[in-house]
Every structure is written in C-alpha cells, then in structure tokens.
C-alpha cells in the first residue's frame, strides 16, 4: 500500500492542507481563507474556530481531490503563524479572539517586561528582546486590560497548537514555535523558569514541549468524523511556519540561507549552536531539527505590502481577474516590468504594520518617497516590489554582520514565483537567487516532519536531500550598481523619519 503524508499550515490568511507521497510529489493541496479582525488601528485578531473550520474543509478537499484512501496517510504534520495568543478556560473553550503576530497594541507591555527582566538578560535566555510581535507581551496586555479574561486562563497555546488540540484532544507545542513566545529558554530548549516566574505566568498553563519530529497525538474520533481522516493517524508536533518553511526548502545545515516572501518577509540562517544577537535585531530560535538553531530577521509587511497595494489600487482588476480565473498579481508584476530599475526615483518604505527587523518600531509607517507627476500606478507597483527587496537586504546585511557567510539564497513564497522579482532580488542582494522544486512552503515542510516522526525518513536532513532539488538560479545582472545607489537612499529614510512616525501616532492618540 502506497503511503502519503499530510501537512497542515494555519497561516495568517488561510488554512492550507498539502498531501504528498514519500518521494515528495504533491498529490493535492487546498487552502481555505478566514478573516482578520482589525477593530482598532494596530490591532490584529482572528477567531480560532475559524482556523479549525477552514482546516476541516482543506482536509476534506485534499482527500476528495486526491481520491486516496484515508488509511494510506501515515502521518500528519502541523505548522502555522507564530506568536499568536490563544487562551482557553477550564472547559477548553476559547476565551477571546487570538491576538496575532502582527498586532501592535503591546508597546507599553514591551517596556515593562524589558524593565523587569533586563534587555540583555532577556536576549541571552529567549534569543530576542520583548517586541510587540511576541506572545509574552500579549499575555501581559490581557492581564493589564482584560483581568476578567486573564483570571479564567487554564491553557496558553499558539495557533497551530489549538488546531492540534482539535485534531487529537492533546496539548503540546514544539520547541521551534515555543522559541517565539519570549518566555522560552532557547539555548536549553525548555520553558524558562526565570522568565515565567518574573512575569507571573503559571507553568501549568503551558503545554509540554517536544522536538518537531516527535509524535504527540493521534487523530481522534470527532476529527475522523468531521474530516474523513482515519482514526488514530499519528500527528507530529511540527514547527512554527518559518522553521517548517526552512525544512520545505532544504535549509537544514549551517551555511544555508533562505528568503521567504509571504505576508511577512523572512531571512533565515541555520546554525549548529545557540548564539544570540546582543543588539536584538536578529532573533534566535530552536530549529525544527534537534540540536539545531536558526537566526531570523523578519519584515512585518513584505507580501502584505503588495497585497495592500493590490487591494487599494486594483479593485476593478481583481473582479475581472476572478471572473477570468487569472491571478491579478501577474498583472501587477507585468505593469512593474514596464518601469526601469529604481522606478524613476520613487522609493517605497514597506512599514505598513510597523517594523521588526532591522528597526523594532511599532510606530514606523509606509512611505512613497519621491512621488511626482511623472509617476503612474506602474511606477508605484515596481517601487513596492523594490522597497520590499531593500528591506530583505537589510536583514541579509545583519546576517553578514553576525559573521554568517553565504554566496546564494534560496527564495520561496509568492515573490519567488515572479522572474522579475527574482531578478530584482539578485541585483539588490548581489547574490545568486535560487529556487527549488518544493513550492508548497511550510505545509510541505510539516509533511516532511510528519514523515520523520512516522518513521518514513531517517531524519529531516536525509529527507531534504532526497526530496528538495534546485530548479533555477538567477545571477546578478546589469543593475547592481543602480540598485546600490537606491538602496543607500532607502537606508537614509527611516532614520530621518523615525521621530516623525512617533509624532504622527501621538496626534491620533491625542484625538481619541
């Protein structure tokens, strides 16, 4: 009987299920979307039950589309958006909507946590400073602002781990995702007794932690009925989306670096021993591979900036594209290709949701700099793509400063599909830009991790060697120096505007 593996990704925009065979061939995939709740400026929430309902539909879709017998699925792996705060009561019911990774409400809590623990000590233990993205600041916000909710907490979970509970009835969390909470001892791969004590987080609220490849539950009867899965399929602990994405693109050994363009933009480097960036600009996590770690830089609005641009300036085209079953992003990229490198002196700062790397600043905002009467929508489209790429280069430069050596990057996500964007990346980075055959991202990586847990593969590294193959290499071209000049101007803009961003935010706050 042929064996298959199922990867499930609880993303920011939708739940994705990917079914692969043991050679890595994608048999079927399905994504079902859900909304983001933005009730106030800077807030970002989702209802966890929406994730589960979308997951049920995605699983049913891939079983139906593939035509396979559910009993042929040997293992399930989980991945998903990181840092989101899911709170359950003693009856295992969700207490409030999940506060997401890109929510910016916890500026005050970041300062308090830093004061209590000390920035240097926090970075040394948790691998990162207290920023609005991370789970610890969200727990603290609930304590300070919703005490009636806080007093009912029995379980703290991350998004994919809520779905794990729904799948199996078991609580658990992998060390890679736990690394993003800011109360995890990343070097020792366990909850930090020191941090949770200082923050008054009860340890019994926290689930047991596992390595990503470990089996930590089995499909239960309710899930089997709802999804069509077979009762008892083993579920691997999985990993946060960035570690799973790295497995899905073959970033499993030191010296390999990736760039992923999803809603956020992520630069990822595997390392074989724990190291923290004392400046706090790069963040250290446990890798999905046991005894491995990784450094990560994150832009909050990478593909999210292009999505905003699409939703704002291409509304009519979106309706037409949906009717004709074409991708409106192809139209945007096509218009951008009509414009010369540098967008005729138009530069875009992609800080639509604040920023995390290299500027941990929740007040930062997006900017079109140099806009003139000669500029059209096409210029703006290219400037957005170039601005995102400049931001990713910021992250790569930090890796170089940290001593990480590399001559090429593996790219994935929506931006990697565009030959224009790959050419821009190659010239802005002045590096070879490489794509691989695996294009289903974190869900694909989660399926590989499930294969290791189920005994299909010896380990993640050997699985990647078997499955992941390079498909294209884009080398730097003729516009390296042009982009170097524009990148230098880009780098000057944030320092010049930093205080003005905060002043602008204060004007709005004063009017409330």
UniProtKB/TrEMBL annotation:
EC number, UniProt record: 2.7.1.17
Site residues (Important for activity), renumbered to this chain: 9
Positions with a binding annotation for substrate: 82-83
Segments forming a coiled coil: none
Domain Carbohydrate kinase FGGY N-terminal: 4-248
Location of the Carbohydrate kinase FGGY C-terminal domain: 258-453
UniProt enzyme class: transferase
Pfam families registered for this protein in UniProt: FGGY_C, FGGY_N
Source taxon at top rank: Bacteria
Gene3D superfamilies, sorted: 3.30.420.40
Catalytic activity annotation: D-xylulose + ATP = D-xylulose 5-phosphate + ADP + H(+)
Entry's family note: Belongs to the FGGY kinase family.
Name used for this protein in its record: Xylulose kinase
Source organism phylogeny: Bacteria, Bacteria division WOR-3
């Amino acid at each position: 009987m042929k064996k298959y593996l199922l990867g499930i990704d609880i993303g920011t925009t939708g739940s994705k299920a990917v079914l692969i065979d043991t050679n890595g061939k994608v048999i079927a995939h399905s994504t079902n979307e859900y909304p983001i709740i933005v009730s106030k400026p800077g807030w970002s929430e989702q209802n966890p039950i929406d994730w589960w309902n979308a997951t049920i539909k995605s699983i049913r879709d891939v079983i139906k589309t593939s035509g396979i017998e559910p009993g042929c699925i040997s293992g399930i792996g989980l991945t998903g958006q990181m840092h989101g705060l899911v709170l359950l009561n003693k009856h295992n019911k969700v207490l409030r909507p999940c506060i997401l990774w890109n929510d910016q409400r916890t500026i005050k809590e970041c300062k308090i946590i830093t004061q209590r623990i000390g920035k240097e000590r926090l970075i040394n233990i948790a691998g990162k400073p207290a920023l609005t993205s991370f789970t610890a600041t969200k727990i603290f916000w609930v304590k300070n602002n919703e005490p009636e909710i806080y007093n009912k907490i029995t379980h703290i979970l991350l998004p994919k781990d809520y779905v794990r509970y729904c799948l199996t009835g078991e609580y658990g969390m992998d060390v890679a995702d736990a690394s993003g909470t800011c109360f995890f001892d990343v070097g020792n791969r366990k909850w930090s007794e020191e941090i949770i004590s200082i923050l008054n987080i009860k340890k019994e609220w926290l689930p047991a932690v596992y390595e990503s490849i470990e089996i930590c539950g089995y499909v239960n009867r309710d899930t089997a009925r709802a999804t069509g899965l077979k009762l008892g399929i083993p579920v691997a602990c999985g990993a946060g989306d960035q570690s799973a994405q790295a497995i899905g693109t073959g970033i499993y050994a030191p010296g390999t670096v990736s760039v992923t363009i999803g809603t956020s933009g992520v630069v990822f480097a595997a390392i074989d021993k724990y190291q923290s960036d004392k400046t706090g600009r790069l963040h250290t996590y446990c890798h999905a591979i046991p005894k491995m770690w990784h450094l990560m830089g994150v832009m909050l609005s990478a593909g999210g900036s292009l999505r905003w641009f699409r939703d704002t300036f291409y509304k009519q085209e979106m309706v037409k594209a949906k009717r004709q079953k074409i991708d409106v992003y192809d139209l945007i990229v096509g218009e951008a290709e009509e414009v010369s490198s540098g967008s005729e002196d138009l530069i875009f700062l992609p800080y639509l949701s604040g920023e995390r790397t290299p500027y941990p600043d929740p007040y930062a905002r997006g900017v079109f700099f140099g806009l003139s009467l000669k500029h059209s929508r096409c210029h703006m489209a290219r400037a957005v793509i170039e601005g995102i790429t400049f931001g990713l280069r910021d992250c790569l430069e930090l890796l170089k400063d940290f001593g990480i050596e590399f001559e090429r990057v593996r790219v994935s996500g929506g931006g990697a599909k565009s030959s224009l964007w790959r050419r821009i990346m190659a010239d802005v980075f002045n590096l070879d830009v490489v794509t691989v055959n695996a294009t289903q991202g974190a869900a694909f990586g989660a399926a590989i991790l499930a294969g290791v847990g189920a005994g299909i593969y010896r380990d993640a590294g050997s699985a990647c060697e078997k499955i992941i193959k390079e498909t294209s290499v884009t080398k730097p071209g003729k516009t390296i120096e042009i982009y170097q000049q524009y990148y230098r101007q880009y780098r000057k803009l944030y320092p010049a505007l930093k205080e003005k961003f905060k002043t602008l935010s204060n004007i709005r706050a004063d009017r409330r």
